[in-house]
Design a protein that fits this description.
The chain is mostly helical. The protein contains 13 helices and no strands. The two termini are 13 Å apart.
Length: 209
Amino acid sequence: MKLKTKPDYWDKSKKYLASKDRVLKSIINNVSDEKFLQRTCSPFQTLSNAIIGQQISIAAAESITRRVRSTCGLINKKNILTSSSAQLKKTGLSGQKVKYLKGLANHLDENSNFFSSIEKMSDDDAIKSLCKLYGVGIWTAEMYLIFQLLRPNILPLGDVGLVNSMNTVYKIENSSVEKLLKISKKWEPFRTVAVWYIWRVIDDDIVEY
């Protein structure tokens, strides 16, 4: 699945954010959104990509993902289930992440409506349901909401890149969740878009889970 259209809130949110935050306005005016946030993967692929990307760099995650595709083909439930754990480990995946992906594939095999049910939930309920999956924590669930469900108001404060960028952009010393939340308050209800732009400040690589 490859959709080339922006989320329907994208352009409206840029204008809104620029009117609320002068610092963010400068970033928006100087960062190209040619490669804007868009849905590029199936639900299974998105969650698998986020699992692969846990606690490693973007470059490392992309390298491992390419090797998984080379070994298994398209990252989907069937191919993960039919690939051996040994094959998957040879791609650079840790033994734990192999278990996470196998667990996800098994869960989907037994619960075919899982992703469609998640899509109907509120942000909080969707995150809670995703976090019930083995190996899926809050950050991974938030990446799913951002990149698959295209939810407009997600703030992943467990993301090191985001926190570092916010500290740099807003010249924050002694960073705390409270300080970051206070800044982000003015971004609502479009925190996802603000996050996308702030990610660009210290990382030109475009993450696409």
